[in-house]
Amino acid sequence: MERIGPLLLIEGPNHSKVPFSRSLYLDCAEKVLFDSGADPDSLVRVNQEFGIELIMNTHYHPDHTQHNYMFPHAEKWINPIEFKTARTIDGIAKSNGIYQEWGQAGIEMWKNNLPEKWINSIGEITGTYEYEIEYLFGDVKVHFLHTPGHTSGLGSPYFPDLGVVYVGDYDMTSFGPWYNGTDGDIEEFIASGKRLIDLDATTYITGHQKGIFTKQEFKTEMVKYLSIIDHRDEIIEKYARKGLSFEELTEIGIFYPENTLDVPIFKTWERSGIRKHLHRLGLTVSTKDGELIGTK
Ligand SMILES: [Zn+2]
């Protein structure tokens, strides 16, 4: 387990790729875990050694909250914006774009396939932290930066004295930025990305894959990462000019590989993601026939 000062990095299986993530444990009097998406056996070992007392969830997504249930005696806090959303299955289904794309029937279908452990995990969340104020755990200062875009509430734990920030799903993966829930927002994503590179920090820890970046590395990667947004715009605009309908656009594979679009949740996010780019491009989907209106 890698250690940065009092922080232990707990990896998820397969380089912390989705459906897992990297967790942080802050070795101090309060015994704080940031996100619970890491390898469950590693989390058990950390718990046996230290006894986790408080879990801070950066946001409600299952790859960051799914092992909360393993620590029944720990307090669990999430950001104030997502506290309510995360407490109801319907709230989560709506944030995930399921209601927007498929209506109530889609929600009922989705509910049948939900992992019970995750439901228990988010159901156990008891409280919220505040953004942008200083918490002191042991002698370690922590601020939860409000970094919306990936979700509306994503909190990024920032340790100013250590020069470390846990940037969660601003993850610099080749997939690119993910803002596909109805609570995600492209412009906010870009603004949060810029805020993070301007932060007084030397070490950036992502939730997935590579993991540790120097400030310079993070800055360089962020430029590439955010440029994927413009690339998506270009592809969608090109096809829209060719006269493709919304339904046809959702079959190409702009976010997800084409051969995975038969997975209902990927198809949902492909659709909701394309809608956001259409909006950005000033295009709307005709409610009558699904044709795109407003091609410049
Ligand atoms: Zn996420």
Automatic annotation (TrEMBL):
Entry-linked SUPFAM superfamilies: Metallo-hydrolase/oxidoreductase
Keyword annotations from UniProtKB, A to Z: Hydrolase
A GO term, aspect molecular function: hydrolase activity
Secretion signal span: none
Gene3D superfamilies (alphabetical): Ribonuclease Z/Hydroxyacylglutathione hydrolase-like
PANTHER family in the cross-refs: METALLO-BETA-LACTAMASE DOMAIN-CONTAINING, METALLO-HYDROLASE MJ0296-RELATED
Protein name: MBL fold metallo-hydrolase
Source organism (scientific name): Bacillus mesophilus
Lineage: Bacteria, Bacillati, Bacillota, Bacilli, Bacillales
